[in-house]
Specification:
zinc; alpha/beta
């Protein structure tokens, strides 16, 4: 097993978070990475510093104009003579019929909600989060062996809500989609297994009309719960991608046994697809005491989850994404790593 991260992911420090009618305290913050990094250290595992794979794999998934916005929005925001605040943030959401004339219009075009502000160093962290994921993919493309068949990426900011040209849900670049696309250089079929508390509507959107990437997601019902407009069971894909998108929305309040019932259904679908490689979006926000949780997974449950993934006996890349009960991230991640 190999584990990757990069210290530049610490630089993104959001100060604002607008959700459901009011400002809230940011939850996707650098302290998460500090706690997550304690887990491999406690288990005597080495964390590899990610290297720069380049921008091209990012642009294979995301629109150039959107990536340009993420990279340059802060400097354009600060160049406005009026005091605009410390971060690029908008309450105007107009992705269509918007020519992007001016930074406020660009923010309205490319920020899908109020949870993805852009600060002075955000782009650096966003970029290195994607590079951390890409290091695992690059290693599988060039050096797949039994010793590195399983790879874990400690990534922030998180990614699965990021759409082709929109940030939201604490997400900016869709790491799972980026590495799935990158892995297709060698592999014919990639399966993405998402067990984060929230549906990854960004992944779904990107691969919705394709059959080379299977997307399965176990998540809380999106009825009045983020992302609210996607993640329902009837969303099965379109065109040649029909039947390659599987959502397993859990009723809010689902217990641990119920969670694993849904996980087993997801894994059965993946086994039927018989992928060459698996990408797992791991969310610790399914933990019973997480502020985002609508189910009740225990610390010990993450070890069980890891064992189930390992039993698929496929090359596996794990992306550590959601999880906002900071004081339990270390314990929960140790449990998961022990299962691998």
């Amino acid at each position: 097993m190999k584990i990757y991260s990069h210290e530049n992911q610490m630089l993104h420090q959001p100060k604002t978070y607008f959700s459901r009618g009011k400002m809230r305290q940011p939850q996707e913050k650098p302290e998460r990475l500090i706690e997550l990094l304690k887990a491999p250290k406690a288990l005597g595992l080495t964390v590899i510093t990610a290297k720069d794979i380049g921008i091209e794999p990012i642009l294979d998934v995301h629109d150039l104009g959107y990536v340009d916005f993420l990279k340059n929005a802060y400097s354009e925001w600060m160049a406005v003579e009026e005091d605009m605040g410390e971060e690029v943030q908008t309450t105007i959401y107009m992705p269509n019929n918007n020519e992007g004339l001016g930074i406020l219009a660009k923010a309205a075009k490319y920020q899908a909600d109020g949870s993805a502000p852009i600060g002075k160093y955000s782009w650096t962290s966003i970029y290195w989060s994607a590079q951390t994921a890409l290091n695992a993919a690059q290693n599988l493309l060039t050096q797949e062996t039994e010793q590195n068949k399983i790879q874990v990426c400690i990534t922030r900011p998180v990614g699965h809500h990021a759409r082709k040209s929109a940030a939201g849900g604490f997400c900016y670049l869709n790491n799972a989609a980026i590495i799935a696309q990158y892995l297709l250089k060698k592999y014919n079929k990639v399966a993405i297994i998402d067990t984060d508390m929230h549906h990854g509507q960004g992944i779904q959107e990107i691969f919705y009309d394709r059959k080379d990437v299977l997307y399965t997601s176990v998540h809380g019902s999106p009825i009045d719960f983020y992302p609210v407009v996607a993640g329902h069971e009837h969303e099965r894909g379109q065109g040649e991608g029909y039947g390659y998108n599987f959502n397993f929305p859990m009723p809010h309040g689902t217990d641990e046994a119920g969670f694993f019932d849904y996980v087993d259904k997801s894994l059965a679908t993946v086994e039927l697809f018989n992928p060459d490689v698996i990408v797992h979006v791991l969310g610790f926000d399914v933990y019973k005491d997480d502020p985002q949780a609508k189910c009740h997974v225990s610390t010990e449950g993450f070890q069980v989850l890891a064992q189930k993934l390992k039993e698929l006996n496929k090359p596996l890349i794990v992306l550590v994404e959601g999880g906002y009960c900071i004081e339990k991230l270390n314990d929960n991640f140790q449990s998961f790593l022990s299962g691998l």
